[in-house]
Design goal:
The protein has 289 residues and is of the alpha+beta class. The protein folds into two domains: 86 residues, Phosphorylase Kinase, domain 1; 179 residues, Transferase(Phosphotransferase), domain 1 (Orthogonal Bundle). Helix content is 34%, strand content 21%. A six-stranded antiparallel β-sheet has the order 1-2-3-4-6-5, with helices on one face. A hairpin with a 3-residue loop joins β2 and β3. The protein is globular and about 55 Å long.
């Protein structure tokens, strides 16, 4: 080693504490309680000095090097900046503080998991609004050359807003796709390096030679699973054998809904016979109304 070079500084991940104020480039954020925890990231409530309700996503090392975590942070930041759309979560800020990487993102009221699990939810009535926002986001992601790969119920977020000038404003509900760190350009997609819940494995993940190549139709399949869950009022579970045998599609065929045929086509096992684009999926659903 060159004696004139200084040794690399020791890196030490430091998660935020509730009530802590983080400052970066003159901006201050007050951290609240932890609201979510995944394998590679934790989410904390957060507010800025303007009083905006936000969340701070902190990337967790999980045995990875500083450079590996930094690269993931840069990738997610790049995706969030490249994929600006009303139905995709908005990033307010991104920075490194004490060897810990932060993304400051708009706060959402709930996830699709909460909506699906709501007692006596009229899923048939909610489906047009959910599918419109969800499929617009997927369409934009695909038109930009990306594939999300993990459009799960926890990654579809519910945003409620009110018009401040009205004394008793009605709430406007918007659904947004989040967790774009997993998104990749279609040419770079590698679903086998993606951690998915087993019930969400598309058939082409299990056997690409039989069912087709992995690409944008993965997101169409996941969209079909989400809309099926909304109609059922629960998140169904499938084993790999059931997925390969086409049980998700068969379950959709048994659902007494006018939207079921469109969902059935989105859940076909073979990529070549599945609904190919988000706009085609939306057209199918519209024809059912």
């Amino acid at each position: 080693m060159n004696q004139s070079q200084s040794p690399e500084p020791l890196r030490s991940f430091r998660p935020p504490q509730e009530g802590e104020v983080i400052e970066c480039l003159g901006r201050r954020y007050t951290l609240g309680r932890e609201t979510g925890h995944g394998y590679f990231g934790a989410v904390f409530q957060c507010t800025d000095e303007w009083g905006n309700d936000l969340v701070a996503k902190v990337l967790l090392p999980q045995g990875r090097t500083y450079e590996q975590v930094r690269q993931e942070w840069l990738t997610e930041l790049q995706n969030l900046k490249a994929l600006r759309h009303p139905n995709i979560t908005y990033v307010y800020d991104a920075f490194e503080c004490r060897d810990t990487f932060y993304l400051i993102i708009e706060r959402c009221a709930a996830t699709l998991v909460d909506l699906i699990g709501a007692p006596d939810l009229p899923g048939e009535e909610w489906l047009p609004a959910v599918s419109r926002d969800l499929l617009q986001a997927i369409d934009f992601i695909h038109q930009s050359g990306y594939v999300h790969k993990d459009i799960s119920p926890t990654n579809v977020l519910v945003v409620m807003s009110r018009e401040q000038l009205l004394s008793t404003p009605p709430a406007t509900v918007v659904f947004k796709v989040g967790d774009l760190g997993i998104s990749r350009l279609e040419s770079d997609i590698n679903l086998f390096n993606t951690i998915l819940a087993k019930w969400m494995h598309p058939p082409e993940f299990l056997d690409p030679e039989q069912f087709g190549a992995i690409g944008k139709p993965v997101d169409i399949y996941h969209g079909g699973l989400l809309l099926l869950s909304l109609l059922l009022g629960r998140i169904p579970q499938f084993t790999p054998a059931e997925i390969a045998a086409g049980e998700p599609r068969r379950l959709a065929e048994r659902v007494p809904s006018r939207y079921a045929p469109a969902i059935v086509r989105a859940l076909r096992r073979h990529v070549a016979f599945r609904t190919q684009t988000a706009i085609d999926f939306w057209r199918d659903l519209n024809q059912s109304q």
